[in-house]
Amino acid sequence: MFSQIISLTPERDRLQAKARAHHFRDALQITLDTPSLTPSQLQYRIFNTLPGWVTQLMRLRNKLVAVFGFSVGQDTMEPSSDEMDVGDQAGFLNVCEKHPEEIISSAEDRHMNFYLSVKKQQNTVIVSTLVNPKTLTGRVYLTAILPFHYVIARSVIYRAKKAGRL
After folding, report:
1. Is 91 left (phi over 0), alpha (psi -120 to 50) or beta?
2. Which residues, in sequence order, are CB contacts of 148 under 8 Å at separation 6+?
3. Which residue of 53, 63, 90, 101 is 20 to 30 Å from 74, comparing CA positions?
4. Spatial contact of 166 and 49, defined as CB atoms under 8 Å apart
5. Are 50 and 156 in contact (CB under 8 A)?
6. Could you give the angle at which helices 39-47 and 136-162 cross, rounded to 10 degrees?
7. Which among 138, 159, 166 has a CA at the least distance from the CA of 53?
8. Contact assessment for residue 125 and residue 166, using Cβ atoms and an 8 Å cutoff
9. Of 108, 91, 94, 115, the residue nearest 14 (C-alpha)
10. What is the tens place of the pLDDT at every residue in 25-44?
11. Contact between residue 129 and residue 53 where contact means Cβ atoms under 8 Å apart
């Protein structure tokens, strides 16, 4: 099902420069059918329409982790528009960097820092995640959600590709 998505070894890039001890990093690449899209437009097209089951899992996650002091804002990663600038909201994320080939969004709470990069590279897009746990609770949480992250990240990208949004 996810054969079009290539798992990459994350490179030394802007996101890797933010990595701290005990971090998690992944990078997924897929070929674009519409290579003229900007990184901001790609982020919008990937995360604007999450599968209902992902939204339900996010809601359940928010209820479960609120007790432990995790930030539990919005249930989505839905960008506010298809052209975002630094400071704009993308669901529970804030755009923190914007470059011609990449847009980076982040969220932080007392247990972890989370970063999402959407980088356009020729006729492909690379979606990268970086999580820096700051506490033992953050490290335990990260370990617990990694199997879900694996499926969710690939499902969201695959669905955007299948729907012709990329």
Report:
1. left
2. 57
3. 101
4. no
5. yes
6. 90
7. 159
8. yes
9. 115
10. 999 999 999 999 999 999 99
11. no
